[in-house]
Amino acid sequence: MSQEPQLVRLARRDVPRAAESLARAFHDYPLLVHACPDAESRPRLARAFGAVALHYAVRWGEVYATSPRFEGIAAWVPGAHFPMTAMKALRAVPWSVFLSLGRHGGNRLRSAGAHLDAIQRRLAPPGHTFLFVLGVQPEFRGQGAVSRLLRPILARLDDERRSCYVDTVNPSAIPIYRHFGFRVLEESPIPKTALTAWALVRPPGTIPT
Fold first, then answer.
1. Any residues with CB less than 8 A from the CB of 83 and at least 6 apart, and which?
2. pLDDT tens digits for 143-167?
3. Which end of the chain has fewer CB atoms < 10 Å from its terminal CB, N or C?
């Protein structure tokens, strides 16, 4: 029986390439569509958005890719490092990356981000791990990348008896998360947008369907 390829752990030097991958994965993510309706301009915002998340997760957690080609990427951060504080963000993310995010429309993400942070503070279990980022490039979807990214880390969290928390504004992601044992804690509209936020948690030892 063939052995599944090992995940590749990303370092700071990998962030620019990984951010390009996430820009493709997140191009149609509803939150970024809200922030930048112009599809031609959106890749710059998506690239900066991904770079902020990746720098933060590399510094305070761990980031894995399916292979050195970065077809799919998942970033995990201990809940103690979320929501993101200004001090921790500045220690993790180059200032130039924040400037790029703001220059390409990232300021329009602020209120939605504050809404998601408030939900996490209220609902996430103590000692949880936060699935901060999960993205797969469009041409590699449906080929098992999500399973390869999630299963090893969720198995480790089971061994450590830790819950996993995730949020999303993408309704098509809900069945995927449910497949891996997550359950919806709350569904709420994000003020001043047409978006809905879902907060999900996976208790340790949950058997995927």
1. 117, 120, 121
2. 999 999 999 999 999 999 999 999 9
3. N
Residue 208 confidence (pLDDT): 65
3-state secondary structure of 87: helix
110 found inside a domain: yes
- DSSP secondary structure letter of residue 93: S
Its domain, for residue 89, covers 8-161
Taking residue 79's Cβ as centre, other Cβ atoms within 10 Å add up to 20
- Return all residues near 85 (Cβ < 8 A) that are at least 6 apart: none
DSSP 35: H
CA atoms within 13 A on the CB side of 144: 5
CATH label of the domain that carries residue 144: 3.40.630.30
Backbone angles phi, psi at 55, to 5 degrees: -60, -45
Looking at residue 146, the DSSP 8-state letter turns out to be H
Q: Are 45 and 35 in contact (CB under 8 A)?
A: yes
- The answer to whether 54 and 63 are in contact (CB under 8 A) is yes
Number of folded domains that form the chain: 1
Mean pLDDT of all residues in the chain? 93
Q: Quick check: 141 and 72 in contact, CB under 8 A?
A: no
Per residue in 54-69, pLDDT (tens digit) is 999 999 999 999 999 9
Whole-structure pTM over 0.70, yes or no? Answer: yes
